[in-house]
Amino acid sequence: MRNHSLRLFFALLAPTLALAAPNPRLVLPEFSALAKKATESVTITLDAALLGMAGRFLNGDDPQDAATKEILKGLQGIYIRSYTFDKDAAYQQADIDEVRNQLSAPGWNRLVQTRSRKSQANVDIYIMVANNQATGLALIASEPRQFTIVNIVGAIDLDKLHKLEGQFGVPKLDIDVPKAPAPNKK
Amino acid sequence: MSEDLESRLRAALRPVAPGDEFTRNLIARVTKDQGPEANARGARGRSSKPSAWWLSASMAASLLIAAGVQHHLQERRETQRGLEARRQVIEALRVTSQKLNLAYEVIKSESSPRADDEPGV
After folding, report:
1. Is residue A37 part of a domain?
2. A181 in any annotated domain
3. Which residue of A30, A35, A135, A186 has the smallest Cβ count within 10 Å?
4. Considering the entire predicted model, what is its pTM?
5. Domains held by chain A: number
């Protein structure tokens, strides 16, 4: 009887725990109004199935493809919205705030924050960590004529990102994955 | 004179039973003439079965060809989707690396004494 009660308790608790588990997937708005104004827009939505499909078309003998394949291992999704405009202030910070607010949820840690007065380029990099493993990455880059949101879901190995150095122009950032989830610094 | 001519004509045109040789020749000729016709009739009779066979075979071949074409088109669509996914992955990594580079440039400028940036890591 007691065993039965425990099972019932855990059965009721499971959905609550699932809801409480941090989700590394951000809800990205359509930005349809901004897309109309943009001179160039990049919208990428790659779920696990499409990533798997892409992986099958990467040539393991090619160094760049092999490195890309390595990065894709363990990833569950890549979502990108990037808009370029032909004049300054074509978008409002409020357009990005909807996404930025999601990054204040538990689980997300700001890894890098850069503010440049000279170029007015701001880049924030957030990472979600579970069991000493990065499970999600979010990047928000805002410049006077461009803003970009990157959301990578899945087991991200930052060392593998480093391996891309010189191939996609990825720099060596010397960023370390936090060993344990820290309180949100935002 | 006329009676003599008449009797001579009657004698000449009297019914004469055909000889055995004539009968044999006639039967042989009839048999020979019936041969090809009989063969043709036989061939027509046999050809009804092959036409049904050809119909079935051509239908089966059509089905196989249709299935093959369908499979080929499906494979082609899958290939196109895969190549498009591959292109998007490479584009995604390019955009990501570009923005990581932007962050890196700002961080790097921190070390420059003339920089007025405010990076924080």
Report:
1. yes
2. no
3. A30
4. 0.67
5. 1
